[in-house]
Amino acid sequence: KAGVTQTPRYLIKTRGQQVTLSCSPISGHRSVSWYQQTPGQGLQFLFEYFSETQRNKGNFPGRFSGRQFSNSRSEMNVSTLELGDSALYLCASSLDGTLYNEQFFGPGTRLTVL
Amino acid sequence: AQTVTQSQPEMSVQEAETVTLSCTYDTSESDYYLFWYKQPPSRQMILVIRQEAYKQQNATENRFSVNFQKAAKSFSLKISDSQLGDAAMYFCAYRSPSISGNQFYFGTGTSLTVIP
Questions:
Q1: What is the mean pLDDT of residues B25-37?
Q2: Contact B57, B67 (CB under 8 A)
Q3: Chain B residue closest in CA terms to A103
Q4: Chain A: closest CA distance from residue B80 (Å)
Q5: How far apart are CA B22 and CA B32, in angstroms?
Q6: For range B53-60, the mean pLDDT
Q7: B88 CB contacts (<8 Å, ≥6 apart)?
Q8: pLDDT tens digit string along B60-94?
Q9: Beta pairing, strands A87-94 & A104-105
Q10: Which DSSP letter does residue B17 get?
């Protein structure tokens, strides 16, 4: 079974631009969560999608948004990029997002904002 | 709010020796899970071990074991017979079925170096 894939792996943008990151979960998994990883703040939860609905959201500004498609693939969008958005963005998938089912992480997308 | 603290930013261990990574957490909930994740330089987070709070027995996975002290809210990871492939960033994490919805709360990580 293929693991969680994220595209692109690397991205360079300038301030003010917007960006879309993609996450394809493991086949059969319906829950996708997104995390931002920075040296200063560590790993912080962005949001979780389950069956095309946002089920949970972290404490991030509205510039960060996401969606999930019927095939469980998820995209994350960041508008009006700021320098502080430079980070590794990780997605994780699980069967249903409950505690009892393991979450599997993707390799991440490294976003650099210049 | 739930917080997870890893007080050791960096640790090193000689190959074949044993090392213990520390983690403490703060919560008022009784039902939760604790995890240790490994993130090698390739960046893919890998689950090392997990512990359900209601289980008193410490979890063990081959060379990895935990010391779970629920009253002290402590959850340390012991790596025995350390190998070069164990070198990575290790994250302690907490999850609970609270109103915040199963999200992970991560510590800031401990970078483990294995010395040949």
A1: 91
A2: no
A3: B47
A4: 24
A5: 18
A6: 91
A7: B38, B39, B40, B41, B111, B112
A8: 999 999 999 999 999 999 999 999 999 999 999 99
A9: antiparallel
A10: S
Detail the DSSP E strand segments found in chain B. 3-5, 10-14, 19-21, 24-26, 33-39, 46-52, 60-61, 64-69, 74-79, 88-95, 105-106, 110-115
Chain B contact present for A102, CB below 8 A: yes
Instruction: Give the residue ranges of DSSP H helices in A1-114.
Output: none
Cβ distance of A103 and B108 shorter than 8 Å = no
Buried b (16+ CB within 10 A) or exposed e, A89-110: bbbbbbbebebeeebbbbbbbb
CA distance B75 to B2: 14
- Please give the Cα distance from A107 to B24 (Å, whole number): 27
The shortest C-alpha distance from A99 to chain B (Å) reads: 7
Structure tokens that stand for A95 in this block: 């069967």
Measure the CA–CA gap between B58 and B78, rounded to whole angstroms.
11
**CA B100 and chain centroid, separation:** 21
